[in-house]
Structures are given as structure tokens and as C-alpha cells.
Design goal:
Chain lengths: 304, 329
């Protein structure tokens, strides 16, 4: 029972990470119509810079600020130099150009930091454990991630539903030309949204650094899951991104934890663990397929 | 009589493009002989790889260029074809049964047909789901399905998992082994030639017109009374099975398969080949494959960090080369 509770919280934590990634992806795509594969690279940059600064200065907060700033700066440069020329182009061109940028960022990271993954410690303040239930203690840092994610979700919700910028974002997602016709500086809006997405990706990368290995390629791994999340949740919808992220996080974590055991009770151990591992690694994609059959536009389509 | 008129008289009404194609074909045929004559035998192997990727990229072009289905999971078919070949070969030399009842084989023809079948089945199953959507959704879903297959094979420890699977020996057909680089090169060239002929007929058939029509306007074709979903699904399945064939050839070429073969970056590479050469052109993917693999081989021989150069190069190609190297057909 404790094990199930622990895995549920683990799943929530993964879900929150995925939300930070997919919120940016879904906003950028929903409003600007841009498929941005470099989003994963921004996550990687946040992780690398953050972890390096933390290791050098042993200041968690400074590391966080630097990681987020680096991701935002890289995002801004990419938007200004390349992506700005791609808004009017087909998404095929966007995919190819951002794929080229991924090669550039991955290899650049290899040149700067080498091929070995780098590690960083959880800050002492957050390294302890607390009792969530009697007999069920949980690491504070992972709870901290969940809290940050939920705060971001709440902040985005307020930003999008209650503020003028949020109104423009919503209007831009559905009636782009009308927003432009009303004299809104759409280019500035685009840059702001892109910056926001980059910031969140950097934050996610920085938060992930102490618990995942910081290595080249970490960005693409989470990017693909981010795509799965926004397909499940409905492209362009923040609410959908949150629901999809938590769903994917929970399903992925729980099947990885319990599927092999479940198989072991009906077949021999060796076969069970390999089949269990294989199946649990594809189960989120099967989930996506099922949801697509049921609702081709995702759970919470944006333009309704 | 001018020279131009004389040429027309001798050759019939031909354009410079026909001569370019003829010249290109002659170069491809003579390439292994020339490379060997000058002592660059290793180039034959690179040439074989170019042809195999040209086949895979051409099949993607069929779905993407003519069918308008922009897929980012095409490498899954390549990988499935490759793994089918490798696994059948593995069981042949291991004297064991696949799934407990399928014997392995080393017969190239059977291996290739099995690879095409497996890839086609996967294409039909995932295509039926993915084609419920279109555009960017289609792209993301094919990407996700491709990654699904990737992680599945990473987790399959009995076939090497992450480390991949080595073919103990290349497949054979009628006593001819595909081990020799030159033999394999000509087999690939023959397959590619056959593909160009068949694909050309397919594209200009009634079926091909429906597929191309639904690329232009799905709604219009629906109003004409065509069920575009079926046409697109068949086109996607054919494209998948051809990529599976390329995978089987690639497995023989490298005598090794690994999950990297189906990683989405491989799909992106195929996309780059298609766009570089020219979308919806007959020979564009071939030109794209030759140029991209040539660039990769050249850059990687100069520096370890060749992707650092190739990445921005790709960005520049996308920004400035909007039509593709093959030009307009």
C-alpha cells in the first residue's frame, strides 16, 4: 500500500515535469503555429547550466536563476535568428530547421561539457524526508518539484484567464489575423510567449538535474513525451497539457513499477521481467492511441 | 541545321533533364568499377548506403510528397525491416524458433518479403490511427509511434536491447551472398531502379491521382465521392513496406541492427533527404540521400563534432533552398 502511494507521488512528480515542458510547447504551437523541436534543447541547457553553477557555487537559488536565464537567452537567440523567419513557412520547414538546431545544440553541449553525464546534489535544505502518512516518508525535493509545478500551473491559469496578455494569447490561438488587425503588436506577443515557454523549459531542466542524469539527448527524450502529452491533452490547451501530463506521468510510473510484478505472478520470472519492461515502455503510446480513437482532438481541444 | 536541331533529330524530343537522368544512371552503374579502379573500394560501401537510404527516403517521399502525409516516424519502418531480417537470420543460425513456431531463414528473398510484410502491417495499424488526424497532429503521432517501437526494441533484451543485434552472416539468394559490397550495391541499384519505375506508374495511375488530389484538397476529393482515408492509408502502407525493404537491405549492408535505426532523429534525416532533393519529385530523394550522406561522411572525416557544422547547414538549407536540388518537374 505504501509502495502504491509512493509510486503515485512519483508519477505526479514526473507529470509536473512533463507539464512544465508541454505548457511551453503547447502555447508556442497553439498561438504561433510553430513546431519547435528545440524546446527539448532549452530544457537541456537549463539542466547543464543550472547543474554547473550549483556545483561551482553550491548555491541552489543562483543555479536555478542561471539555468533559467541561460535557457531563456538561448530561446531568445533562436527565436530572433531563425524561428522568426519560419512563422509563415510550412511546419515541415519548421521541423527541419529546428532539427538542425538540435544537432547544433547537442554537439555544442558535447564540446563544452564532454560526453559524460554530470551530476549534482539535491540542496541540503530539501534533501530530508517528511512523513506524508504514518510510515510513508517522502523526499522533500520531489515534493518541492510538485509544488513548483502546481504553482506554475496556477500562475499560468491566472495569466491566461484573468490578464490582458492572457486574453491576447487566447485570441491569438483562435483568431490570429483578427488580433493583428486590431493593432496588437503580434511580433512582441510571439516573443513574449516564446520567452515564457523557454523559461519554463529551463526551469524544468534545472529541477530535473539532481534527479535525472544530465546528459546530451535528455532533451529529446522528454520532448517526445511532451508531444504525447499535448496530443492527449489537446494541442494549444494549457488545461489539456496539465491533464495529459499528470495522466502520462502516473501511467508511465505505475506501469513501470507494477507491470513486471504483475506478469511475474502469471509466468516465469525471466520472461516476465523482459516482457514487463518492454510493455511498460510503450504503454503511454498505447494510451495515446486509445485516446486518439476516442477523441481525435485530445481531451481538452483548445479551439472550442 | 543547327547543332540543337541535329541533337533533336538523333535523339527525338528530349529535354536536358532526360540527359541528366541518363547520365546520372550511367554514373551510378559505373560507380563501383570506377571506385575500385582508383583504389577507393570503401566508397562502394558508402555508395551502397546512399542507395539504401535513397530507397527509404523515396518511400517517405511517396507518403509525404505525393500523399501530403508529413511523417516523423518513418524510421520505424526502416528499423522494423532491419530487425525482421536480423531476427530471422539470428534464429536461422541459432536453430531456434521465433515465437516458438517460426523458423529462421537465411534466404534473402524470404527475409526481404518478411521485412516488407512486417513493416506494412505496422504501417497499416499505426496509419489507420494516425490518419484520423492530419497536419501537425499526424506528425506528432507518427513521431510517438516511432519512439514506441524504438523503446520496445531497447527493452527487448533477448535481441540485444540497446546494444543491437549482429547478423552472423549476410543473407543469400540462389547461392549469391549479399556480403560482398559490390554485389550488394548492384542489388540495391536494381531494387531502386525497379522502385522508380513502379512508383512512377503508381503516381500517374488513377489511384495516384486520388492520393495527390487529397494532398491538394481533402474536401474536394471527398465531394468527388472518394473515401480519401482509404487511399491515403494504402499509400502510407506501401511507403512503409518499401522502407521495410530498405531496412532489410541496410541490415545486410551493415550486418548489424540497433534501435538507433528507428530513433526519430533517423526519421528526421530521411525528411532532410526528401526536402533537400525536392519534395514530390521522382529522383529528389536519391539526390538528397547522396548529398546528405556525402556531407556526413566528408564532415565526419574532418572533425568529430561534424554535427556542429551540419546542424546550422541544415538550417541554412531550409531557409534558403526552398525548392530542392532536383528542381521543378
Amino acid at each position: 500500500m505504501m509502495l502504491v502511494a509512493e509510486q503515485i507521488v512519483n508519477g505526479l512528480q514526473l507529470g509536473v515535469m512533463l507539464f512544465l515542458i508541454s505548457a511551453g510547447l503547447t502555447l508556442v504551437f497553439g498561438v504561433m503555429g510553430l513546431v519547435n523541436l528545440t524546446h527539448g534543447s532549452l530544457y537541456m541547457i537549463g539542466a547543464y547550466v543550472g547543474a554547473t553553477v550549483v556545483n561551482k557555487t553550491s548555491s541552489f537559488i543562483l543555479g536555478g536563476l542561471c539555468g533559467i536565464a541561460a535557457a531563456a537567452a538561448a530561446g531568445g537567440a533562436v527565436e530572433f535568428l531563425v524561428l522568426r523567419k519560419l512563422y509563415q513557412r510550412s511546419f515541415l520547414d519548421q521541423v527541419l530547421a529546428t532539427y538542425g538546431l538540435i544537432l547544433f545544440f547537442n554537439e555544442g553541449t558535447t564540446i563544452l561539457w564532454g560526453r559524460q553525464p554530470i551530476y549534482t546534489d539535491i540542496p541540503a535544505m530539501l534533501a530530508s524526508s517528511v512523513d506524508l502518512l504514518p510510515g510513508f516518508s517522502y523526499q522533500v525535493y520531489r515534493l518541492f518539484i510538485i509544488a513548483v509545478g502546481l504553482m506554475v500551473a496556477a500562475g499560468l491559469y491566472i495569466l491566461i484567464t484573468k490578464t490582458r496578455i492572457g486574453m491576447l494569447i487566447r485570441a491569438g490561438a483562435t483568431h490570429r489575423d483578427m488580433v493583428r488587425a486590431l493593432g496588437i503588436n503580434i511580433r512582441l506577443l510571439y516573443t513574449a510567449i516564446f520567452g515564457l515557454g523557454a523559461l519554463l523549459a529551463g526551469l524544468a531542466g534545472f529541477l530535473a538535474a539532481p534527479i535525472f542524469a544530465v546528459q546530451v539527448g535528455m532533451g529529446e527524450q522528454i520532448l517526445v513525451l511532451g508531444f504525447v502529452v499535448i496530443i492527449i491533452g489537446g494541442v494549444g490547451s494549457i488545461r489539456g497539457a496539465l491533464a495529459g501530463a499528470v495522466l502520462v506521468g502516473l501511467v508511465d510510473t505505475l506501469t513501470r513499477a507494477f507491470l513486471p510484478g504483475l506478469f511475474r505472478s502469471v509466468m516465469e520470472a525471466n520472461q516476465a521481467s523482459s516482457l514487463g519492461a518492454a510493455l511498460s515502455s510503450i504503454v503511454v503510446y498505447l494510451l495515446m492511441a486509445i485516446i486518439l480513437i476516442w477523441r481525435p482532438k485530445g481531451l481538452f481541444p483548445a479551439n472550442q | 541545321m543547327t547543332i540543337a536541331e541535329a541533337v533533336v533529330l538523333v535523339t527525338g524530343r528530349r529535354t536536358w533533364r532526360d540527359f541528366a537522368v541518363l547520365g546520372g544512371a550511367l554514373i551510378l552503374i559505373a560507380f563501383p568499377l570506377i571506385a575500385q579502379a582508383f583504389g577507393y573500394s570503401f566508397l562502394v560501401s558508402i555508395g551502397g548506403r546512399m542507395l539504401i537510404y535513397a530507397l527509404a527516403a523515396s518511400s517517405l517521399n511517396l507518403a509525404l510528397g505525393y500523399g501530403g502525409m508529413v511523417s516523423l516516424g518513418h524510421a520505424a519502418f526502416l528499423g522494423l525491416g532491419g530487425y525482421t531480417a536480423a531476427i530471422l537470420t539470428f534464429h536461422h543460425f541459432d536453430d531456434s524458433l521465433l515465437f516458438g513456431f517460426i523458423p529462421g531463414t537465411n534466404n534473402a528473398l524470404i527475409v526481404v518479403m518478411a521485412s516488407m510484410l512486417v513493416a506494412a502491417l505496422f504501417a497499416a495499424a499505426t496509419g489507420a490511427l494516425a490518419l484520423r488526424t492530419s497536419g501537425v497532429h499526424f506528425l506528432m503521432i507518427t513521431l510517438a509511434f516511432g519512439q514506441m517501437i524504438y523503446y520496445l526494441f531497447v527493452a527487448l533484451k533477448s535481441y540485444g536491447g540497446d546494444d543491437g543485434l549482429r547478423l552472423r552472416r549476410a543473407n543469400e539468394f540462389l547461392g549469391v551472398s549479399l556480403r560482398d559490397d559490390v554485389t550488394l550495391y548492384y542489388v540495391c541499384l536494381a531494387v531502386l531502379f525497379a522502385y522508380f519505375v513502379l512508383a512512377g506508374r503508381f503516381i500517374n495511375s488513377r489511384f495516384g491521382f486520388v492520393v495527390r488530389g487529397s494532398r491538394e484538397s481533402e474536401r474536394r476529393m471527398a465531394h468527388f465521392g472518394y473515401r480519401t482515408f482509404r487511399y491515403k492509408l494504402v499509400c502510407y502502407t506501401i511507403a512503409g513496406s518499401v522502407a521495410g525493404l530498405a531496412g532489410a537491405l541496410l541490415a545486410n549492408h551493415e550486418r548489424f541492427v540497433s534501435p538507433d535505426l528507428m530513433h526519430w532523429t533517423k526519421s528526421s534525416e530521411l525528411l532532410v533527404m526528401v526536402v533537400l532533393g525536392g519534395i514530390a519529385t521522382r529522383y529528389g530523394a536519391l539526390i538528397g540521400a547522396i548529398v546528405l550522406i556525402g556531407m556526413e561522411s566528408l564532415l565526419s572525416s574532418i572533425t568529430d563534432h561534424w554535427m556542429f557544422v551540419l546542424g546550422p547547414l541544415l538550417v541554412a538549407i531550409v531557409l534558403f533552398n526552398r525548392r530542392g536540388l532536383a528542381g521543378r518537374e
